[in-house]
Amino acid sequence: MTAVNRKWYDGMLTTEDWWAVWLGLIMFFAGMLTIWGIDLVGWMAKTKTWEWSLFWSDPSWGKLLSAAHGKAGKAYEGLGGLGALLATYVVFTALTCLGAYFQKLDVKRFFLGFTCIFFITWGAWVIGHEAHFKALKTGQSITQSQVWGDNLYCMTKVHKCTKLINKAIDKQGVREVIDAGLKADATEAEIAAAREAANKVLQDKKVKKKTIRMSWGLQLGGGFSYMLALFIGLVIGNFFKGFAGFLSEAAKPEWFIKTAIVYLGIKLGLMSMKATGFAMELALAGAAATFVAYLMFWPIVYTLGRRAFNLRRDASAVLASGISICGVSAAIATAGAIRARPILPIAVSMLIVVFAMIELVGLPAFYATVAPDQPIVNGAAMGMTVKTDGADAAAGAILDEMMVANHYRATGELWESDWILSAAILTKIWIDVFIGVWAFVLALIWVYKVERKPGDSRVGASEIWFRFPKFVIGYFIAWLFYVAIAVWFPDAIKAASSGAKVVQSPMRKMMFMLTFVAIGVITDFSKLKGMGRLAILYAIALFVIIAPIAYLVAYVFHHGMMPPLVGGG
Amino acid sequence: MNADVEFTLVHDGRQWVCRNDAITVNGESLAELDEELGRALRESGEYPPGSRLTVFMGFDFDTIPTWLRQYHDHYFNRLVSINL
Q1: Contacting residues of A for B63, CB less than 8 Å apart
Q2: Can you give the residue ranges of every domain in chain A?
Q3: Helical segments of chain B, H only
Q4: Residue A2 to residue B59, Cβ atoms within 8 A
Q5: Where are the domains of chain B?
Q6: ipTM rounded to 2 decimals
Q7: At A429, phi and psi to the nearest 5?
């Protein structure tokens, strides 16, 4: 018998939710040690942008990967690309297997499955970093193409490229020549001189290393890796079901994404150091929007289920919670609160997982195309529409990459990355946080009103705690810690950022990538067969009610909010 | 609160089933299950007539698909008072 909910600390060692907190905080504390000059996370592998013809002319792991250490961890340089990858594999396999052991999973199956998922993930990640897929054009190529040409791409972050080129221009003292070639009424001779100067600038050693001329490039940023990982996962999940079954013990998208969200707390903390006001505004707008959406979604979907689809009270309530609130956990919490038969949350959870995948595939491109000038609104709407943490964070990450790259291509203006993703996650987290309270309220209504039998059952306020999503604790600890450093110890910001950057960037992105592969592996679209009225109601409610209302509410609370520009420009 | 007697609770697709080593009872609704359980406890003769028992029913999550078991904190156990 599974006796649960008897002590406040039940599940701390045995649930995925708590293990996301532990994995998150272990790396958070390890990263934090850079404040005292100790780098315990610099072994983490990170991907590099590479170009296939250059790679094949002289193949090496160092062109694809490197260790992510900061100044305090120079010693990790010796690992090289392959060594860093193996170190990453060993550390994360050990930690996740430990978690699997305490969660009573089959550790041997988990180990084998995780190993496959890990290397599939890194394969997709590295391929996605090939320059023709990933690299963005330099700012000069977008806004000054008559001098620089329109085929100059960055092999590093765009703002770093721009900085390097500007530095080289000043070093060579050719700014005036280049500016003369950029004038609207420039003569052919001036343009030719400017082009010659620009070519010399591109021969600068540092600039040459970080830029490349290519005949074509998709300019998809990091989004291509995510889409590739998802595609591979879906192919495995739907066409290689035997292999998917083999991987299933380790395909834990919710665990991976919740861990990534704790790491994202660090990122938000770092971003808050630079833009505290905006971060707070985003958090408060997200909370308000969530609250408003909450009050509208549930009664509408519940009424639709009862009146239009003649569903029983319990089926309507479970479905309304699953689709309106936070997906699987809400469906189960509601089923628990109203004592519904277990088949209901199981069926609704299957719908939630499959439809979340449909949203993940379709919504980022839809929002980015329909509303390219509303990045934060799009992110917040995503958080209120996609009903699993994994799919929401994944969709937010794709949307972020897509919108930042699209906006840069269209305007030459570079938004800071991850603000759109943060908007998507913040709204989702507020929704998750409210589930405990909502389940408690529903339990009270059911016990004391719908199935009134005074004295027979009790509803304890402890139910709120048991249903509280624990990974949120890790997220807020990480976020508020870095806000506290910015406020009380501003001198430590630089040192604190060094380790934090490793955790919030390559580690977080790896957890995202693992999520993409895992979520694809566990999604089997054939599960929709035989779901009948529930599936139809779910589809109607999602696309006709939830998505439009979520967008409207997100617009009301977030319109006009824009991500800061890179470099504060 | 400590329970006087503990049971495992499952749903077999048609009825709720509550059992321990000594007693197994079924009911289409939880109210019916509680009534049946009260009768079975009275008939067992182990508890004095007229007494009030606190019964714990822990849902057996082994009957749920493995991918949902991580959410077991969200589902329910029951603590019910039954007058014999």
Answers
A1: 342
A2: 136-213, 222-562
A3: 30-44
A4: yes
A5: 5-83
A6: 0.86
A7: -65, -40
